[in-house]
Amino acid sequence: STINRKNVPEKRGNVMIDIHSHILAGIDDGVGSVDESIEMAKIAVQEGITTIFATPHHIYGKYETDKYDIIDKVNELNKVLEKKNIPLQVLPGQEVRIHSNLLEDYRMKKIATLNNHQRYILVELPDDHVPLYTEQLLYDIQCEGLTPIIVHPERQREFMENPFLLYNFVKKGALTQITAASVVGSNNRKIKRFTHQIIEANLTHFIASDAHNKSNRNFRMKDAYSLIRSKYGEGMVKLFQSNAELLLQDQFVHKEMPDRVKKKKLLGIL
Ligand code: FE
Questions:
Q1: pLDDT tens digits, residue range 205-253?
Q2: Where does residue 119 fall: left (phi above 0), alpha (psi -120 to 50 degrees), or beta otherwise?
């Protein structure tokens, strides 16, 4: 069940939830030590974040993070943060690289869903291609009663080349999460453009940090939301923020009818 933290604001609307981060120490390519986790937590608080999901990678052969290990580390970090009076609630999750045995692993309780609630699961595709079994897997995940959230589709090469693939997955019930840094375009202009096309086509439902460290892969949530506010208005900010709240409460999120991304614009041909 939900981990309760005393010094976190309870009031609805006074929260900012980050559903994707690598704030747990020594478990993947995220932060290296508990001290760094504490530093990251302080930055998260400065960014206005009140609740953060710790979602270590799960990639076969590389990071085989264990669900119970994640939950233990989350509990430990919460204790440390509470002791230091840092008002950030950490919740367990996992960023699961898709593979054909994903559901078997889930049934064997090897995979952590968000908040360990058997409702939402972060799924990551390989960077360079969409495996043929993806559509079937996303369908099967939903048949299992879970909602898959595809993380950072804006950084996925095949989605960029063929955005219809992403449209098709969203149309068939998958949710997606774009990265705050991609919204502001701190890494790459092409990714920034695709990110905004994804937003405009109603192909995404969450903004998260995917923060790994305090230098080149930091939070950028404040910047992302202020850009969203100036570009699309307060309603869009509210949509993303309330979706994260709904997720936290195991409810269904708000979805708009997805559109297709116009390929001409994507390639920038004029
Ligand atoms: Fe990540």
A1: 999 999 999 888 999 999 999 999 999 999 999 999 999 999 999 999 9
A2: alpha
Between the two ends of the chain, the Cα-to-Cα distance in Å is: 53
pLDDT at residue 62, rounded to an integer: 82
Spatial contact of 243 and 251, defined as CB atoms under 8 Å apart: no
Ligand 1: centre distance to CA 24 (Å):
12
Q: Describe the strand order of the beta sheet including 120-124 as a list of residue ranges.
A: 63-64, 57-59, 95-97, 120-124, 147-151, 175-179, 206-208
Q: Which residues of the chain have pLDDT under 50?
A: 1-11, 270
Distance 126 CA to ligand 1 centre (A): 12
Calculate how far, in angstroms, residue 95's C-alpha sits from the geometric centre of ligand 1: 6
Distance between Cα 270 and ligand 1 center (Å): 34
